[in-house]
Specification:
With 114 residues, this protein is of the alpha+beta class. It contains 3 helices and 5 strands. Helix 1 runs antiparallel to helix 3.
């Protein structure tokens, strides 16, 4: 008799007989569970990576002034320039302050993380 890998092999006249234990089924279950957990963790890490990349791209676009979000425009608009119920954009609206914008974006990211 010899024991290998959770299965018992009986040697009989040049033939090997494989007898499975109940333990093999539990090991298969454990193996399946571990593979599922690994896949779940892999997917979670991928999602986090994509979110980080998306956040970095947004920061770069905001720093360069490629996109303007509603929040940023609302901060640029002046209340003094109101005429007939409409908001008028200041002269500063054409060239927003990139340092303030970067600071705001980083602050928003810290709030999301923490």
């Amino acid at each position: 008799w010899s024991h290998s890998g959770g299965a018992l092999i009986a040697h009989q006249k040049k033939k090997a007989k494989l007898v499975l234990f109940k333990m093999d089924y539990t090991w298969k279950d454990v193996n399946n569970d571990l593979t599922l957990i690994i896949q779940m963790l892999r997917n979670l890490v991928r999602r986090q990576w994509k979110e980080e990349e998306r956040g970095e791209k947004m920061i770069k676009k905001l720093e360069n002034g490629d996109i303007f979000t509603r929040r940023i425009l609302n901060k640029i608009w002046s209340q003094k320039g109101k005429k007939k119920g409409g908001l008028w954009v200041n002269g500063k609206g054409t060239k927003p302050n990139s340092k303030k914008r970067k600071k705001n974006v980083l602050g928003q990211q810290e709030k999301k993380e923490g």
